[in-house]
Design a protein that fits this description.
Oligomer: single chain
Order of helices and strands: EHEHEHEEHEHEEEEHEEEE
Number of domains: 2
Number of helices: 6
Distance between the termini: 19 Å
Helix content: 10-25%
Length: 227
């Protein structure tokens, strides 16, 4: 299935001319002052797992209880008990480079991006594996491909027994604010020292062949290209 990149026209033209792409970083997108409330997210790269306890659970040093054992450390002989409370623990991913797209296209989505971030252009990635491989090749000395996935949109607290609880937080976002974006992410890990990462402008001209200009908004009207 193709992916879609909504973008400013100057950057679309730059990509199709030179292969210029911007890889953001997971932690950098926490800055909502820099990126705004549509692109930015203070909770980027993290989510929270909750376990509600109805009734009473007995604890001993040899008994492991999901979530509970992360919060309470029981040592010594005997037992203790807890009852009628909810425990919430965070899950956070490491920082990494990230390239964001949408897993679908429709005119309402395009107009939403135009309204929210003044994005007036869209290109289609028609061969996703080839595109990712071209980026990976261009940055191979400094970074490696980790994974590509659609984002899973979640509640602010995820039940510990849910399948979603095991998803890497780099691929989750709060659905109340971001579900409209239908986001897909390609994530790349750094090969360098564990220092704060910064957004990265790269040149991957081999990636151009896997994409095509798709649509533009001019004076409020969407037009399509056959290129």
């Amino acid at each position: 299935m193709p992916l879609y990149k909504f973008i400013e026209r100057e950057f679309l033209e730059s990509f199709f001319t030179t292969g210029c792409l911007r890889l953001g970083t997971i932690y950098d997108f926490k800055d909502i002052v820099e990126h705004g409330v549509s692109r930015g997210d203070q909770s980027e790269g993290e989510h929270h797992i909750v376990r509600g306890i109805d009734g009473t659970i007995k604890l001993t040093k040899d008994k492991y209880e999901p979530i509970i054992s992360e919060v309470f450390k029981f040592e010594g002989e005997g037992e203790s008990s807890i009852s009628n409370l909810s425990l919430v623990v965070p899950r956070r991913c490491q920082d990494g480079f990230i390239f964001c797209t949408s897993d679908r296209y429709n005119e309402a989505l395009f107009k939403d991006w135009k309204r929210e971030e003044n994005l007036d252009s869209c290109y289609q990635i028609i061969n996703v594996p080839g595109f990712i491989q071209a980026i990976s090749k261009a940055i191979t000395n400094s970074a490696f491909f980790y994974a590509n996935s659609n984002v899973t949109y979640t509640e602010k607290q995820i039940d510990y027994q849910s399948k979603v609880a095991s998803i890497n937080p780099v691929f989750t976002k709060f659905k109340g604010e971001y579900e409209w974006q239908c986001e897909n992410r390609s994530v790349f890990g750094s090969k360098g020292p564990l220092v704060p990462l910064k957004p990265w402008i790269i040149f991957a001209p081999e990636a151009i062949q896997y994409c095509k200009p798709f649509a533009f908004i001019d004076n409020g009207t969407i037009r399509y290209t056959s290129v």
